[in-house]
Amino acid sequence: MIAFLKIIPFILEGFIASVFQPLFWVVVMMVAFLNLKQLRLKETLFGIKDESLLFYTALSFFYGLVGGFLGSFLMVLFGVSITAIGIGYLWIVAMLLLLVHPRFLCFSYAGGIISLSSLLFGFPKVDVPQLMGLVAILHMVESLLILTSGHISTIPIYIRNDRGELVGGYSLQMYWPIPIVALLIMSKNIFPGEWLNMPDWWPLIKPDITGNLDNILYVLYPVIAALGYGDLALAHSPKKKVQKAALNLAVYSLILLFLCVVVSHFRTPVLYLLPALFGPIGHEVVVFIGQRQELKGEPIFLNPPEGIMILEVLKGSFAEKLGLSPRDVILKVNDVPVNTMNELQEAFDINPWWATVEYFKDAEKKTRVDTIKKKIDDSFGIIPVPGPWDQPNIFINQKGFLVRKLQRLREVLMKK
Q1: Which of 135, 163, 176, 207 gives a 20 to 30 Å CA spacing to 33?
Q2: What is the DSSP string of 158-227?
Q3: Over 70: is that where the pLDDT of 192 sits?
Q4: Which pLDDT score is estimated for 348?
Q5: Which fold would CATH assign to domain 308-384?
């Protein structure tokens, strides 16, 4: 433990160095661009501009720094080195998988494919426990980021679930720039002088090195990464959804990390198959469980028999001043029963200075009646759950660029 206390300043130094790398700020700009796409999607779906790009990018930046520092400590604790993991191949395979489906960009799939290729064909030559250990640690950091900030950036959506119901819900999208410190394995002959001696049990993930291990040296090296989270919340609130998603991902990460630690001590190719297979298969199970819970579960944003259920309250609106929240049901406005947005707006415009609203407060499980001031040009300021005449505005199972082009080519050929 004393050795790790001594190494913290070096981790911090490497972490700060990674923050000031130009590539890190390129990633920050990329995250800002992705956030801008999210805000524009909300504007496209509902014609609403009530969010700040700077706010979301600053949050992504802050949480990314926290996640990066934690990830740096975990990388050093487990002794994950990027020397023999084929980091270039990892990115190439990940980008190719992106062409098939956006969610395959995740390193768990690329890492699994590269590991299996290395074991079955001998190319590329990679240290499987180290590679999949990197995947496990990145997902562990991601699980914590999802838990703390995955619910912040949400877009209300209309979608049809597996029960055939048109329901309201949220698309959850969050991105984080990650400055992280990894390890490089080098010869002590390259760096003469004094070194910090680590405990005998370290590293937890043993490197695949033959010969005298006393002649190797671990060097801290700044690395830039980015993490992203995308999900749906139909049967749970965004906060409940990210709690479940973070728990599932954390369990997956711990199991994968445990497998990497164990097989690195035995160095048997057959055992290498465990993390190589569990990486992508376990991740698929996590994705399947998450989607099944939302698409087959009991929806919480379903059009009620009477009144208008709120999907989202717009910032600075009359509804926000009144204290309305998602899942509240508006029953009457100025003593007029309302069941559609047109009826709501007409009743709202009856009195230019005041509005009396009768609504069911979901958090309190009771009906309330409140009267507050309004301005002549005030809009009520809600996005309702979809009604009987609404249509879905989001479709799941989107395909990658390559798959879309192949399908388009097939359609053209069939017409001929």
Answers
A1: 135
A2: EEE-TTS-EEEEEEEEEEEEEEEEEEEEEETTTS-S--PPPPTT--SS-----S-GGGEEEEEEEEEEEE
A3: no
A4: 93
A5: Pdz3 Domain (2.30.42)
